[in-house]
Design brief:
The chain has 411 residues and is of the alpha+beta class. It is built from nine helices and twelve strands. 51% of the residues lie in helices and 16% in strands. The strands form three sheets. An eight-stranded mixed β-sheet has the order 2-1-5-4-3-11-10-12, sandwiched between helices. Helix 2 packs across helix 3.
Length: 411
Protein backbone atom coordinates (compact mmCIF):
# COMPACT_ATOMS: atom_id res chain seq x y z
CA UNK A 1 0.00 0.00 0.00
CA UNK A 2 1.24 3.48 -0.90
CA UNK A 3 2.65 5.15 2.22
CA UNK A 4 2.37 8.68 0.79
CA UNK A 5 -1.30 8.94 1.77
CA UNK A 6 -3.60 7.39 4.36
CA UNK A 7 -6.77 8.04 6.37
CA UNK A 8 -7.46 9.10 9.91
CA UNK A 9 -10.87 8.59 11.50
CA UNK A 10 -11.77 10.45 14.67
CA UNK A 11 -14.60 11.50 16.90
CA UNK A 12 -15.75 12.56 20.36
CA UNK A 13 -16.74 9.66 22.58
CA UNK A 14 -17.59 11.21 25.93
CA UNK A 15 -16.27 9.86 29.22
CA UNK A 16 -13.76 8.44 29.69
CA UNK A 17 -12.17 8.62 26.24
CA UNK A 18 -13.13 12.08 25.00
CA UNK A 19 -11.66 12.86 21.56
CA UNK A 20 -9.80 10.01 19.89
CA UNK A 21 -8.28 9.51 16.43
CA UNK A 22 -6.91 6.42 14.70
CA UNK A 23 -5.11 5.82 11.41
CA UNK A 24 -6.23 3.46 8.66
CA UNK A 25 -5.28 2.26 5.18
CA UNK A 26 -1.55 2.87 5.47
CA UNK A 27 0.34 5.50 7.36
CA UNK A 28 3.56 5.75 9.30
CA UNK A 29 3.79 4.97 13.01
CA UNK A 30 6.28 7.78 13.63
CA UNK A 31 3.94 10.29 11.98
CA UNK A 32 0.98 8.95 13.93
CA UNK A 33 2.82 9.53 17.21
CA UNK A 34 3.73 13.14 16.49
CA UNK A 35 0.91 14.53 14.36
CA UNK A 36 -1.46 17.05 15.93
CA UNK A 37 -4.95 15.85 16.71
CA UNK A 38 -7.86 16.77 14.46
CA UNK A 39 -9.92 17.89 17.42
CA UNK A 40 -11.79 21.17 17.09
CA UNK A 41 -11.23 24.18 19.31
CA UNK A 42 -14.88 24.29 20.35
CA UNK A 43 -14.63 27.68 22.02
CA UNK A 44 -13.77 29.11 18.58
CA UNK A 45 -15.67 26.89 16.13
CA UNK A 46 -18.44 24.40 16.87
CA UNK A 47 -20.64 21.97 14.96
CA UNK A 48 -24.42 22.08 15.15
CA UNK A 49 -26.99 19.41 14.17
CA UNK A 50 -27.25 18.80 10.43
CA UNK A 51 -24.00 20.66 9.77
CA UNK A 52 -20.51 19.81 8.67
CA UNK A 53 -17.12 21.43 8.27
CA UNK A 54 -14.37 20.81 5.75
CA UNK A 55 -10.77 21.81 6.35
CA UNK A 56 -7.30 21.82 4.89
CA UNK A 57 -4.18 22.13 7.03
CA UNK A 58 -0.42 21.72 6.89
CA UNK A 59 1.79 19.88 9.39
CA UNK A 60 5.42 19.01 9.89
CA UNK A 61 5.68 15.66 11.69
CA UNK A 62 8.58 13.23 12.19
CA UNK A 63 10.54 15.08 9.52
CA UNK A 64 7.72 14.83 6.95
CA UNK A 65 5.66 17.53 5.24
CA UNK A 66 1.95 16.77 5.58
CA UNK A 67 -1.20 18.21 4.08
CA UNK A 68 -4.50 16.88 5.34
CA UNK A 69 -8.04 17.29 4.02
CA UNK A 70 -10.75 16.71 6.63
CA UNK A 71 -14.50 16.61 7.03
CA UNK A 72 -16.41 16.91 10.33
CA UNK A 73 -20.07 15.90 10.75
CA UNK A 74 -22.21 16.58 13.80
CA UNK A 75 -22.83 13.40 15.79
CA UNK A 76 -23.99 12.77 19.35
CA UNK A 77 -22.05 10.86 21.96
CA UNK A 78 -23.55 7.89 23.77
CA UNK A 79 -25.41 8.87 26.95
CA UNK A 80 -24.68 12.56 26.42
CA UNK A 81 -26.47 15.61 25.10
CA UNK A 82 -23.31 17.69 24.96
CA UNK A 83 -23.20 20.05 21.98
CA UNK A 84 -20.41 20.42 19.42
CA UNK A 85 -19.70 16.68 19.24
CA UNK A 86 -18.78 15.08 15.92
CA UNK A 87 -17.43 12.22 13.87
CA UNK A 88 -14.89 12.88 11.14
CA UNK A 89 -12.20 11.69 8.81
CA UNK A 90 -9.06 13.07 7.24
CA UNK A 91 -7.11 12.14 4.14
CA UNK A 92 -3.42 12.81 4.85
CA UNK A 93 -0.68 13.25 2.25
CA UNK A 94 3.07 12.95 2.85
CA UNK A 95 5.16 15.41 0.80
CA UNK A 96 2.73 15.24 -2.15
CA UNK A 97 -0.98 15.74 -2.86
CA UNK A 98 -3.48 14.53 -5.45
CA UNK A 99 -6.02 16.38 -7.57
CA UNK A 100 -8.63 18.18 -5.50
CA UNK A 101 -11.54 16.47 -7.27
CA UNK A 102 -10.19 13.02 -6.45
CA UNK A 103 -9.45 14.07 -2.87
CA UNK A 104 -13.00 15.32 -2.26
CA UNK A 105 -14.72 12.28 -3.79
CA UNK A 106 -12.53 9.85 -1.84
CA UNK A 107 -12.87 11.81 1.41
CA UNK A 108 -16.66 12.03 1.11
CA UNK A 109 -16.88 8.34 0.27
CA UNK A 110 -14.79 7.37 3.31
CA UNK A 111 -16.85 9.68 5.57
CA UNK A 112 -20.11 8.25 4.25
CA UNK A 113 -18.95 4.71 5.02
CA UNK A 114 -17.69 5.81 8.45
CA UNK A 115 -21.06 7.34 9.36
CA UNK A 116 -23.02 4.43 7.92
CA UNK A 117 -21.07 1.81 9.90
CA UNK A 118 -20.63 3.69 13.18
CA UNK A 119 -23.73 5.88 13.68
CA UNK A 120 -27.20 4.92 14.73
CA UNK A 121 -29.81 7.67 14.61
CA UNK A 122 -27.02 10.22 14.69
CA UNK A 123 -25.32 8.69 17.77
CA UNK A 124 -21.80 7.22 17.70
CA UNK A 125 -22.11 3.51 18.45
CA UNK A 126 -18.50 2.80 19.51
CA UNK A 127 -16.42 4.04 22.45
CA UNK A 128 -13.06 4.59 20.72
CA UNK A 129 -11.79 5.39 17.23
CA UNK A 130 -9.85 2.12 17.23
CA UNK A 131 -13.24 0.36 17.17
CA UNK A 132 -14.42 2.14 14.03
CA UNK A 133 -15.68 -0.10 11.24
CA UNK A 134 -14.24 1.30 7.99
CA UNK A 135 -13.92 0.31 4.35
CA UNK A 136 -11.60 1.38 1.59
CA UNK A 137 -13.20 4.05 -0.62
CA UNK A 138 -13.70 3.01 -4.21
CA UNK A 139 -11.22 5.53 -5.67
CA UNK A 140 -8.60 5.15 -2.94
CA UNK A 141 -6.06 3.27 -5.09
CA UNK A 142 -6.31 5.84 -7.89
CA UNK A 143 -4.75 8.47 -5.66
CA UNK A 144 -1.28 6.92 -5.89
CA UNK A 145 -1.28 7.43 -9.65
CA UNK A 146 -2.25 11.10 -9.46
CA UNK A 147 0.02 12.65 -6.82
CA UNK A 148 2.05 15.79 -7.42
CA UNK A 149 4.66 17.88 -5.61
CA UNK A 150 3.64 20.82 -3.44
CA UNK A 151 5.48 24.04 -4.34
CA UNK A 152 5.83 27.36 -2.57
CA UNK A 153 4.77 26.12 0.87
CA UNK A 154 6.85 26.40 4.02
CA UNK A 155 5.81 23.54 6.29
CA UNK A 156 8.14 24.33 9.18
CA UNK A 157 6.72 27.81 9.84
CA UNK A 158 3.64 27.89 12.06
CA UNK A 159 1.94 31.13 13.00
CA UNK A 160 -0.99 29.58 14.86
CA UNK A 161 -3.46 31.39 12.59
CA UNK A 162 -6.82 29.95 11.56
CA UNK A 163 -9.27 31.04 8.87
CA UNK A 164 -12.94 30.12 8.53
CA UNK A 165 -14.61 30.59 5.15
CA UNK A 166 -18.39 30.82 5.04
CA UNK A 167 -19.22 29.50 1.58
CA UNK A 168 -20.87 26.75 -0.42
CA UNK A 169 -19.24 23.38 0.18
CA UNK A 170 -20.58 21.31 -2.69
CA UNK A 171 -17.92 19.28 -4.50
CA UNK A 172 -17.49 21.73 -7.37
CA UNK A 173 -17.10 24.82 -5.16
CA UNK A 174 -14.98 23.03 -2.58
CA UNK A 175 -12.60 21.83 -5.28
CA UNK A 176 -11.85 25.43 -6.22
CA UNK A 177 -11.43 26.53 -2.60
CA UNK A 178 -9.09 23.63 -1.79
CA UNK A 179 -6.94 24.34 -4.84
CA UNK A 180 -6.54 28.01 -4.01
CA UNK A 181 -5.97 27.34 -0.31
CA UNK A 182 -2.54 25.73 -0.76
CA UNK A 183 -0.78 29.08 -1.04
CA UNK A 184 -2.78 30.52 1.87
CA UNK A 185 -1.33 27.80 4.12
CA UNK A 186 1.76 30.02 4.27
CA UNK A 187 -0.44 32.44 6.24
CA UNK A 188 -2.90 30.12 8.03
CA UNK A 189 -2.12 26.74 9.57
CA UNK A 190 -5.68 25.52 9.03
CA UNK A 191 -8.51 26.79 6.84
CA UNK A 192 -12.09 25.69 7.58
CA UNK A 193 -15.01 25.78 5.13
CA UNK A 194 -18.67 25.62 6.10
CA UNK A 195 -21.99 26.61 4.60
CA UNK A 196 -23.72 26.43 7.98
CA UNK A 197 -25.10 29.80 9.02
CA UNK A 198 -25.09 28.72 12.68
CA UNK A 199 -21.42 27.82 12.59
CA UNK A 200 -20.55 31.07 10.84
CA UNK A 201 -22.43 33.12 13.43
CA UNK A 202 -20.80 31.21 16.30
CA UNK A 203 -17.29 31.85 14.90
CA UNK A 204 -18.08 35.50 14.34
CA UNK A 205 -19.41 35.98 17.87
CA UNK A 206 -16.44 34.26 19.51
CA UNK A 207 -13.95 36.31 17.49
CA UNK A 208 -11.09 33.86 18.03
CA UNK A 209 -10.75 32.65 14.43
CA UNK A 210 -10.84 35.01 11.48
CA UNK A 211 -13.96 34.47 9.35
CA UNK A 212 -14.65 35.66 5.80
CA UNK A 213 -17.13 34.91 3.05
CA UNK A 214 -16.24 33.88 -0.52
CA UNK A 215 -15.39 37.47 -1.45
CA UNK A 216 -13.28 37.83 1.67
CA UNK A 217 -11.47 34.64 0.73
CA UNK A 218 -10.63 36.19 -2.64
CA UNK A 219 -9.31 39.29 -0.87
CA UNK A 220 -7.08 37.10 1.27
CA UNK A 221 -5.68 35.61 -1.93
CA UNK A 222 -5.21 39.08 -3.44
CA UNK A 223 -3.41 40.29 -0.31
CA UNK A 224 -1.15 37.25 -0.41
CA UNK A 225 -0.45 37.86 -4.10
CA UNK A 226 0.53 41.46 -3.35
CA UNK A 227 2.81 40.34 -0.52
CA UNK A 228 4.38 37.78 -2.83
CA UNK A 229 4.91 40.47 -5.48
CA UNK A 230 6.75 42.67 -2.99
CA UNK A 231 8.77 39.75 -1.66
CA UNK A 232 9.54 38.73 -5.24
CA UNK A 233 10.82 42.21 -6.12
CA UNK A 234 12.91 42.40 -2.96
CA UNK A 235 14.30 38.93 -3.58
CA UNK A 236 15.38 39.91 -7.11
CA UNK A 237 16.90 43.17 -5.83
CA UNK A 238 18.82 41.30 -3.12
CA UNK A 239 20.09 38.74 -5.60
CA UNK A 240 21.24 41.42 -8.03
CA UNK A 241 22.97 43.30 -5.23
CA UNK A 242 24.68 40.13 -4.08
CA UNK A 243 25.83 39.51 -7.64
CA UNK A 244 27.34 43.00 -7.82
CA UNK A 245 28.96 42.64 -4.41
CA UNK A 246 30.57 39.44 -5.61
CA UNK A 247 32.77 41.40 -8.01
CA UNK A 248 34.30 43.55 -5.30
CA UNK A 249 34.63 40.67 -2.86
CA UNK A 250 36.20 38.51 -5.54
CA UNK A 251 38.71 41.20 -6.55
CA UNK A 252 39.73 41.93 -2.96
CA UNK A 253 40.01 38.27 -2.03
CA UNK A 254 42.09 37.37 -5.09
CA UNK A 255 44.36 40.41 -4.56
CA UNK A 256 44.99 39.41 -0.96
CA UNK A 257 45.65 35.83 -1.92
CA UNK A 258 47.98 36.82 -4.76
CA UNK A 259 49.95 39.15 -2.48
CA UNK A 260 50.27 36.45 0.13
CA UNK A 261 51.35 33.92 -2.47
CA UNK A 262 53.86 36.38 -3.97
CA UNK A 263 55.42 36.88 -0.56
CA UNK A 264 55.57 33.15 -0.03
CA UNK A 265 57.23 32.65 -3.41
CA UNK A 266 59.99 35.14 -2.53
CA UNK A 267 60.65 33.67 0.89
CA UNK A 268 60.11 29.98 0.28
CA UNK A 269 61.31 28.82 -3.08
CA UNK A 270 61.54 25.30 -1.67
CA UNK A 271 57.75 25.24 -1.14
CA UNK A 272 56.87 25.27 -4.82
CA UNK A 273 54.37 22.44 -4.46
CA UNK A 274 52.36 24.25 -1.80
CA UNK A 275 52.36 27.42 -3.85
CA UNK A 276 51.04 25.55 -6.89
CA UNK A 277 48.24 24.11 -4.75
CA UNK A 278 47.40 27.61 -3.52
CA UNK A 279 47.27 28.91 -7.09
CA UNK A 280 44.98 26.04 -8.00
CA UNK A 281 42.74 27.09 -5.12
CA UNK A 282 42.57 30.59 -6.57
CA UNK A 283 41.54 29.22 -9.93
CA UNK A 284 38.83 27.17 -8.25
CA UNK A 285 37.64 30.18 -6.25
CA UNK A 286 37.58 32.38 -9.34
CA UNK A 287 35.65 29.78 -11.28
CA UNK A 288 33.29 29.19 -8.34
CA UNK A 289 32.49 32.91 -8.05
CA UNK A 290 31.72 33.03 -11.76
CA UNK A 291 29.58 29.89 -11.60
CA UNK A 292 27.76 31.14 -8.50
CA UNK A 293 27.12 34.44 -10.22
CA UNK A 294 25.63 32.55 -13.18
CA UNK A 295 23.50 30.46 -10.79
CA UNK A 296 22.14 33.64 -9.20
CA UNK A 297 21.22 34.91 -12.65
CA UNK A 298 19.54 31.56 -13.34
CA UNK A 299 17.54 31.79 -10.10
CA UNK A 300 16.50 35.33 -11.08
CA UNK A 301 15.32 34.08 -14.47
CA UNK A 302 13.28 31.26 -12.89
CA UNK A 303 11.93 33.58 -10.22
CA UNK A 304 10.94 36.18 -12.81
CA UNK A 305 9.33 33.51 -15.00
CA UNK A 306 7.34 31.49 -12.46
CA UNK A 307 7.32 33.66 -9.33
CA UNK A 308 7.98 30.65 -7.07
CA UNK A 309 9.74 32.30 -4.17
CA UNK A 310 10.18 29.27 -1.90
CA UNK A 311 11.54 27.19 -4.78
CA UNK A 312 13.94 29.99 -5.68
CA UNK A 313 14.89 30.39 -2.02
CA UNK A 314 15.66 26.67 -1.65
CA UNK A 315 17.59 26.58 -4.91
CA UNK A 316 19.56 29.69 -3.98
CA UNK A 317 20.36 28.36 -0.49
CA UNK A 318 21.59 25.06 -1.99
CA UNK A 319 23.74 26.96 -4.49
CA UNK A 320 25.01 29.22 -1.73
CA UNK A 321 25.95 26.30 0.54
CA UNK A 322 27.83 24.58 -2.28
CA UNK A 323 29.53 27.86 -3.22
CA UNK A 324 30.52 28.65 0.39
CA UNK A 325 31.86 25.14 0.97
CA UNK A 326 34.00 25.23 -2.16
CA UNK A 327 35.40 28.70 -1.40
CA UNK A 328 36.10 27.77 2.24
CA UNK A 329 37.90 24.62 1.14
CA UNK A 330 40.17 26.53 -1.20
CA UNK A 331 40.62 29.96 0.34
CA UNK A 332 43.09 28.99 3.07
CA UNK A 333 46.53 29.61 1.66
CA UNK A 334 49.00 28.09 4.08
CA UNK A 335 51.32 30.81 5.40
CA UNK A 336 54.95 29.86 5.07
CA UNK A 337 57.36 30.77 7.84
CA UNK A 338 59.34 33.92 6.90
CA UNK A 339 63.12 33.73 6.61
CA UNK A 340 65.20 35.18 9.49
CA UNK A 341 66.18 38.79 8.83
CA UNK A 342 69.42 38.63 10.85
CA UNK A 343 72.61 38.08 8.78
CA UNK A 344 70.49 37.08 5.79
CA UNK A 345 69.31 34.05 7.69
CA UNK A 346 72.73 32.45 7.98
CA UNK A 347 73.42 30.53 11.18
CA UNK A 348 76.20 32.11 13.18
CA UNK A 349 78.70 29.61 14.75
CA UNK A 350 79.39 29.74 18.45
CA UNK A 351 82.57 31.65 19.44
CA UNK A 352 83.95 28.72 21.38
CA UNK A 353 83.80 26.58 18.26
CA UNK A 354 85.49 29.08 15.92
CA UNK A 355 88.77 27.73 14.54
CA UNK A 356 89.96 31.35 14.29
CA UNK A 357 88.51 33.30 17.17
CA UNK A 358 89.44 36.65 15.67
CA UNK A 359 87.96 35.94 12.29
CA UNK A 360 89.81 36.50 9.04
CA UNK A 361 91.83 39.41 10.46
CA UNK A 362 92.96 37.15 13.25
CA UNK A 363 93.84 34.48 10.78
CA UNK A 364 96.06 36.85 8.75
CA UNK A 365 97.58 38.33 11.92
CA UNK A 366 98.39 34.87 13.18
CA UNK A 367 100.13 34.04 9.91
CA UNK A 368 102.22 37.17 10.09
CA UNK A 369 103.25 36.42 13.66
CA UNK A 370 104.29 32.91 12.71
CA UNK A 371 106.32 34.28 9.78
CA UNK A 372 107.95 36.83 12.08
CA UNK A 373 108.82 34.13 14.61
CA UNK A 374 110.21 31.99 11.80
CA UNK A 375 112.39 34.84 10.57
CA UNK A 376 113.72 35.53 14.09
CA UNK A 377 114.61 31.91 14.60
CA UNK A 378 116.54 31.84 11.30
CA UNK A 379 118.59 34.85 12.33
CA UNK A 380 119.59 33.15 15.56
CA UNK A 381 120.65 30.04 13.72
CA UNK A 382 122.73 32.06 11.28
CA UNK A 383 124.40 33.97 14.15
CA UNK A 384 125.25 30.73 15.89
CA UNK A 385 126.75 29.27 12.73
CA UNK A 386 128.86 32.37 12.11
CA UNK A 387 130.05 32.30 15.72
CA UNK A 388 131.11 28.72 15.40
CA UNK A 389 132.94 29.45 12.14
CA UNK A 390 134.74 32.36 13.79
CA UNK A 391 135.79 30.23 16.74
CA UNK A 392 136.93 27.51 14.38
CA UNK A 393 139.00 30.03 12.47
CA UNK A 394 140.69 31.20 15.64
CA UNK A 395 141.47 27.63 16.62
CA UNK A 396 142.99 26.88 13.24
CA UNK A 397 145.03 30.06 13.40
CA UNK A 398 146.52 29.11 16.72
CA UNK A 399 147.29 25.65 15.52
CA UNK A 400 149.19 26.76 12.40
CA UNK A 401 150.60 30.08 13.54
CA UNK A 402 154.50 30.28 13.66
CA UNK A 403 156.07 29.98 17.08
CA UNK A 404 157.54 33.51 17.00
CA UNK A 405 153.96 34.88 16.83
CA UNK A 406 152.82 32.57 19.57
CA UNK A 407 155.54 33.92 21.77
CA UNK A 408 154.33 37.44 21.10
CA UNK A 409 150.75 36.50 22.10
CA UNK A 410 151.99 34.60 25.17
CA UNK A 411 153.87 37.70 26.44
Amino acid sequence: MDSTYFFSAFGTFGNPNGFRQSFFLGGNQNIAKEIRTFDLKTDAIKLFPQSNIYSIRKDYSAGYNLISYSVYTFAKEQNSDRGGTFIGSSLLFVNKIASEGLIISTLNDFQHILEKNNLSEGIITVNHSDQFSIQKPKDFDKIGFNVREVDELDFTQSGGNYLVVYCETNAAQLQTFFKKSIELLNVFDTIYFTQSHEIGEFVKQKGIFKIVDADGFKKELDNLEEEKRIILQNAIIDLKKEKEDLKEVKTKLLEDLNIQISQNEKRHQDNETKIKESKKGIEIISKEYDQYSEKIEEVIRHLTADGKIETAKKRHQENKRAFTNTVDQNRNVESLSPLSSSSNGRIQPQKDNQPYPQGLSGFHSSGRNQEKEFRLDGFKVATLILSLLLIGTFVLCFMWMPEKYLEIFSK
